């Protein structure tokens, strides 16, 4: 690493305003072994030799909430402005995860860290959400089967709180803990509250000279183990400096306190920018298949904030004094899989001929408006997406989470009527890049603006588009003959800055498809490759 790069990283840790917006670069020491490869070459955790390599859920899977239900585990994550949202995933070994389906279909705003629980045979999701300009509310949805159907959201009347966690006290009553750390009692059915939200615990504070984002006690998760309730909390801020987010713990014999801080705090913290995972926090303890213990939490991959916060798994050891410590060594090396787990399927392929319904499981609309779902209709020849808006900045694109540092995606698009369409890498409406076309021209978008000088006149209603992201360097191709020959756009882009520390929102850079205008577009033969071979160029297009 050059002296100038080391200096830049040191500045970031010093907490300057400029550094808080920096992407950060990974060191050679932080580069992990090659991951396992699953469908479409996507990276997976299972290495096939009895070990796994983090992350267990690659790509944008933040704020994990995990439920052990007999011999099966279920997990879901913050879905923010994506609808359908709150995709539930299933595993029988804590390493390989396969989607069950989305639980949330009704838009209630941006959705942050939820809690998935089972109580007296019924599944509940407690959901903090906020519409634009409104205060946070906590909702509940429920289902008698994990596959659904899930109920419509019920507003619990809790205002200004996020990060709910459900727990049953020693009195048999149900409670929600929230950020703060605060507590409110729930009615027996879990669908209303009794009394007011009140302070519950004053969290442990780290030394004042630690480089963090802010104090921000959040993500409380509670566990009853032995004679104690254990309260696991995140402090230090969710993003910002790589060394900010951390996991702390406290315990009490009563849900009402008093709480005793863990003498080993923090349980988990990124201490150096040389580590493979940054901003580690928002943890939940879970019992493994063999009765051992594990901790599930999230973190940013060193140098790849664009992928969002990814889900990590680390073993936990209980100590003689009744506390617990994270074990397993460095997260950049393989870890033995949980004992007695039954291997199951991992993430399905992303390549899609649009003959099956993958809404929520793979595709979702970003910040959809009313009746957005009706825009997409599947058919034998592909899916038809109705145009809405005038460009990528004022439409709800169809998005797809990616898991890989290097990947390639391509799709064939037919314009039907007065329409424009394209293939994007999309963070939000202020931060995207991509290639699109009308019947008269090929267009290029860079950081949410069209590069008008890069337009290429043509006369075509069908194009196959390709985008390749090779560790933040993006290359575009297009083809008039369904991919038999390709033309490369002569402008490449660097997208390492399209992440939360620059644009906010806690999102990730996703593959996206957009359709605008008064017509529609047909989407055909989407293909994803998470481990693409080098491209052999056939023709370089010149623009002018």
TrEMBL record:
Keywords: Glycosidase, Hydrolase, Signal. The keyword S-adenosyl-L-methionine does not apply. The keyword Signal applies. Residues 351-520 form the Beta-xylosidase C-terminal Concanavalin A-like domain. Pfam families: GH43_C2, Glyco_hydro_43. This is Family 43 glycosylhydrolase. It comes from Sphingomonas abietis. Residues 1-22 form the signal peptide. It comes from the Bacteria. Belongs to the glycosyl hydrolase 43 family.
């Amino acid at each position: 690493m050059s002296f100038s790069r080391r200096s830049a990283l040191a500045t970031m840790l010093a907490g300057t305003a400029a550094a808080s917006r920096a992407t950060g670069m990974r060191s050679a020491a932080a580069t992990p072994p090659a991951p396992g490869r699953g469908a479409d070459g996507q990276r997976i955790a299972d290495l096939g030799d009895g070990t796994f390599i983090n992350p267990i859920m690659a790509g944008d899977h933040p704020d994990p909430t995990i439920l052990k239900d007999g011999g099966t585990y279920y997990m879901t994550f913050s879905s923010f402005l994506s609808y359908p949202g709150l995709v539930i995933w299933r595993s029988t070994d804590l390493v390989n995860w396969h989607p069950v389906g989305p639980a949330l279909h009704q838009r209630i705003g941006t959705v942050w860290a939820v809690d998935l629980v089972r109580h007296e045979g019924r599944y509940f999701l407690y959901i903090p959400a906020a519409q634009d300009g409104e205060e946070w509310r906590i909702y509940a949805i429920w289902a008698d089967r994990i596959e659904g159907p899930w109920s419509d959201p019920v507003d619990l009347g809790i205002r200004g709180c996020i990060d709910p966690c459900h727990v049953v006290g020693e009195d048999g009553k149900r409670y929600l803990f929230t950020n703060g750390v605060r507590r409110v009692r729930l009615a027996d059915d879990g669908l209303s509250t009794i009394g007011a939200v009140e302070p519950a615990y004053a969290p442990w504070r780290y030394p004042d000279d630690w480089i963090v984002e802010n104090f921000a006690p959040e993500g409380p998760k509670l566990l009853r183990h032995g004679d104690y309730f254990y309260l696991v909390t995140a402090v230090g801020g969710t993003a910002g400096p790589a060394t900010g987010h951390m996991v702390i713990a406290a315990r009490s014999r009563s849900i009402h306190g008093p709480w005793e801080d863990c003498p080993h705090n923090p349980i988990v913290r990124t201490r150096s920018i040389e580590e493979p995972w940054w901003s580690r926090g928002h943890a939940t303890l879970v019992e493994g298949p063999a009765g051992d213990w594990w901790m599930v939490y999230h973190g940013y991959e060193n140098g790849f904030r664009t992928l969002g916060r990814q889900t990590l798994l680390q073993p936990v050891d209980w100590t003689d004094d009744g506390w617990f410590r994270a074990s397993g060594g460095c997260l950049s090396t393989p870890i033995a899989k949980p004992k007695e787990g039954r291997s199951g399927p991992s993430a399905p392929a992303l390549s899609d001929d649009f003959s099956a319904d993958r809404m929520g499981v793979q595709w979702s609309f970003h910040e959809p408006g009313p009746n957005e779902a009706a825009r997409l209709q599947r058919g034998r020849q592909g899916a038809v997406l109705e145009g809405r808006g005038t460009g990528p900045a004022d439409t709800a694109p169809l998005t797809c989470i990616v898991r890989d540092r290097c990947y390639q995606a391509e799709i064939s698009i037919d314009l039907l009527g007065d329409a424009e369409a394209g293939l994007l890498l999309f963070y939000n409406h202020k931060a995207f890049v991509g290639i699109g076309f009308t019947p008269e021209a090929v267009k290029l978008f860079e950081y949410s603006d069209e590069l008008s000088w890069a337009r290429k006149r043509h006369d075509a209603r069908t194009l196959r588009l390709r985008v390749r992201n090779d560790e933040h360097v993006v290359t575009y191709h297009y083809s008039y003959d369904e991919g038999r020959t390709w033309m490369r756009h002569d402008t490449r882009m660097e997208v390492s800055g399209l992440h939360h520390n620059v644009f906010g929102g806690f999102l990730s850079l996703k593959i996206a498809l957009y359709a605008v205008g008064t017509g529609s577009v047909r989407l055909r033969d989407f293909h994803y490759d998470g481990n693409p071979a080098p491209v052999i160029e056939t023709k370089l297009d010149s623009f002018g």
